[in-house]
Design brief:
The chain is of the alpha+beta class. The radius of gyration is 16 Å and the shape is globular. Bound molecules: iron/sulfur cluster (SF4) (3 copies). One iron/sulfur cluster (SF4) binds next to helix 4.
Length: about 190
């Protein structure tokens, strides 16, 4: 499978700008909340998405029953692929949203037709468990636009984050509470 043609993506900036703007606005609003909640501590836990290897531990090591880690989508980097390696099982029987073809064990990724041959993928955070399977798939064959972040509307900001202790790649770090997210961004040539 070949990586997506970034030229195709940049020509579709009308899509990119609108969708990515919405995504950032959501995280920005949550950033305000976390600053109020944890300003005494001044720092919060976050995942460096360029270091994370999507090992699966984020889904199971959080002290919360439902992990505070969720998948985030950098729409500006996405190729809007029909054959999305973050959404589909390897060698799917059909390129559609049949449950047997989906990589996500929680059914948390929604696929929506935009126009031939483009599809948009959005994450339903209420279903996402932070397992990172989609992240691994997207990094392997796609543009790497899916990535994991600690969501600060959920995280307890534990002194010792149990996921950080179990993280095999050292991707967890403390970041300033007023800049609580480390977002992936498209490199514009
Ligand atoms: S594959 Fe895992 S990380 Fe990705 S959306 Fe589904 S539950 Fe979330
Ligand atoms: S700091 Fe605590 S609540 Fe937040 S992600 Fe780590 S273990 Fe989960
Ligand atoms: S434990 Fe570390 S490497 Fe594994 S998915 Fe979480 S941040 Fe990524």
């Amino acid at each position: 499978m070949e990586k997506n043609n970034r030229g195709d993506v940049s020509r579709r900036s009308f899509l990119r700008d609108g969708l990515f703007g919405g995504s950032l606005a959501g995280l920005g609003a949550l950033g305000g909340l976390v600053f109020n909640k944890t300003k005494a501590a001044n720092t919060v836990w976050q995942i460096d998405p360029y270091v994370c290897i999507a090992c699966g531990n984020c889904a199971t090591y959080c002290v919360l029953e439902e992990s505070a880690v969720k998948c985030v989508h950098a729409f500006a980097m996405c190729g809007y692929c029909d054959l999305c390696s973050g959404f589909l099982e390897p060698e799917p029987r059909e390129l559609d949203s049949g449950a047997e073809n989906e990589l996500c064990p929680a059914g948390a990724i929604q696929r929506r037709f935009v126009e031939d041959p483009y599809y948009e993928y959005t994450i339903d955070e209420s279903l996402c468990n932070g397992c990172g399977k989609c992240v691994k798939g997207c990094n392997a064959f796609g543009n790497g636009s899916l990535f994991l972040q600690v969501r600060h509307d959920r995280c307890l900001n534990c002194n010792e984050c149990s996921i950080a202790a179990a993280c095999p790649s050292g991707a967890f770090k403390r970041v300033p509470a007023d800049k609580p997210y480390i977002l992936k961004e498209a490199k514009h040539e």
